[in-house]
Design brief:
By secondary structure, this protein is α+β, with helices and mostly antiparallel strands. The chain is 28% helix and 20% strand. The strands form five sheets. Strands 4, 5, 6, 7, 8 and 16 form a six-stranded antiparallel beta sheet that branches. Strands 1-2-3 form a three-stranded antiparallel beta sheet. Strand 13 and strand 14 form a beta hairpin. The N and C termini lie far apart (126 Å).
């Protein structure tokens, strides 16, 4: 009998393949081959190698970047050794002020003792004591300056102001000197006038804006001693209040008493100044109050037909050493350029007058004819009289010290005077 070895081999091979396939069938019924297992292992190994190579490349890039950055920093540091730093005059004044503060840490006995007393410290003293470098270190080539620091005793702490005189190049200037320069004075048209011993802004469009604590104020006048009267420019929310709302014996009800010294308006102004009128209203912070000086507020009563505008009537009675106040009738009249503005209730006074607003606000002046009326500004009417128990807004007046320095600006609404 002839035996076919090939058929046996084929049969054997088929049996082996069947067994192999049976062994490589997964629980899901899928066939898993040795090739697929080897291919999966190869992919994992290849992926692992690629990640290692990528990490290595990133590490090289970071090292190179670090080296380049280090070289750049070194170059900048080397260049800074040969390039003189530029300082503005304002920077130098600040350096002098900080140096003077250090000086008085060591020499506290020389500080001024009484409120408003001052001491002048020459910059040479600060250089000699090594509290700062020589002025030439900070100045541009060819510029020479002299300097001093004025220290003033405040109610709380001290005020330091650096002063530089660099000839034609620069000089530290007080704001009142900047405002009252001779070429700023007018004899006609809108602007600054010499009037009754003061410098007074008059007209409808005048560049008398000052920024203080982020708010706009307007310069009403500059006094003969250089102090600057400012009035708040905008309406203060939540300040529409009575001039006074107390019981009045003559009228037998709470129509108010028009005596400024005991009035509600005086009390509320003090609260506004200290930030206690309402927690949402802070027109002045402590650092800004340091720029201000006390003043005498004229509170004399005035008749409705009074024709004066020189403050003589109002200044017949004064509240001394005030920190905050209100405008007088005379001061409102002085701001108008209308020749027909000639008495207390003249509606012409609202013409050509920058003090006009679209809301009503109190004046410091009361009506002389009775004990319960006071004057206020009324929109489209000018100065009017009404019961003290009525409501109008507070429009506060404060005075800047004469030694407050100018720090930029042209006095316009968009570029107001700045102080330091």
């Amino acid at each position: 009998m002839e035996i076919n070895f090939n058929e046996g081999k084929k049969e054997l091979n088929n049996t082996s393949e069947t067994e192999s396939q049976e062994q490589m069938i997964s629980e899901d019924g899928e066939i898993i081959t040795d090739f697929e297992e080897e291919d999966t292992d190869y992919t994992q190994v290849k992926s692992s190698i690629d990640k290692d190579e990528l990490k290595g490349q990133i590490k090289k890039v970071l090292v190179v970047a670090g080296v380049i950055l280090g070289v750049l920093v070194l170059i900048i540091l080397m260049m800074s050794l040969f390039v003189k730093k530029e300082y503005s005059y304002s920077d130098i004044e600040e350096i002098m002020e900080k140096a003077c503060q250090k000086y008085f840490v060591d020499y506290a006995n020389y500080l001024p003792k009484e409120v408003n007393d001052t001491r002048n410290v020459p910059v040479e003293n600060l250089v000699e004591g090594k509290y700062m470098k020589d002025l030439s270190t900070y100045l541009k080539e060819g510029v020479t300056c002299t300097g001093r620091v004025t220290v003033q005793k405040l109610t709380e702490g001290y005020d330091y102001k650096g002063y530089l005189n660099c000839g034609d190049n620069y000089e530290t200037t007080e704001l009142y000197k900047k405002v009252t320069k001779e070429d700023n004075l007018k004899t006609s048209g809108y602007g600054l006038y010499s009037l009754y011993g003061n410098y007074v802004f008059r007209g409808e469009e005048v560049d008398n804006y000052v920024k203080l604590n982020g708010y706009l104020w307007r310069i009403v006048k500059v006094t003969s001693d250089g102090n600057i009267a400012l009035i708040f420019n905008d309406k203060i929310s939540l300040s529409s209040l009575p001039w006074d709302d107390r019981y009045n014996k003559a009228k037998d009800y709470n129509i108010g008493n028009n005596n400024y010294s005991t009035s509600r308006v005086k009390e509320n102004l003090a609260k506004l100044y200290n930030g206690t009128l309402d927690e949402t209203i802070t027109i002045l912070k402590s650092k800004h109050r340091a720029y201000l000086t006390e003043f005498d507020l004229c509170v004399g009563k005035r008749a409705q037909n009074d024709k004066t505008n020189n403050n003589a009537t109002e200044c017949s009675e004064k509240e001394t050493s005030q920190q905050i106040g209100l405008l007088t009738v005379s001061e409102y009249m002085q701001a108008s350029l209308d020749n027909n503005c000639n008495s207390t209730l003249s509606e012409s006074c609202q013409n050509y007058n920058y003090l006009n607003t679209d809301y009503n606000w109190w004046l410091a002046t009361a009506d002389k004819s009775n004990s319960y009326d006071a004057y206020h500004f009324a929109t489209n009417l000018g100065v009017q009289v009404k019961h003290a128990s009525s409501q109008a807004y507070l429009r506060p007046v404060v005075y800047l010290k004469s030694n407050v320095f100018y720090n930029g600006g042209k006095g316009t609404k968009t570029d107001p005077y700045k102080i330091k």
